[in-house]
Amino acid sequence: MSSEKYVPALRFKWLTSLYDFIVRITMPEKKIKTRLVETAGISAGQKILDFGCGTGTLTIMAKQASPDANITGIDIDVEILNKATQKASEKKIDILLIEYDGKKLPFQSNHFNRVISCLVFHHLNTETKKKILAELHRTIISNGELYIADFGRSKSWVQRKLFNIIRVLDGFKPTEANAKGILPDFIQEAGFIYVSIIERFKTIFGEVQLLKATKQ
Ligand SMILES: C[S@@+](CC[C@H](N)C(=O)[O-])C[C@H]1O[C@@H](n2cnc3c(N)ncnc32)[C@H](O)[C@@H]1O
Question: Which atom of ligand 1 is nearest to the CA of 7?
Answer without folding.
Answer: 15
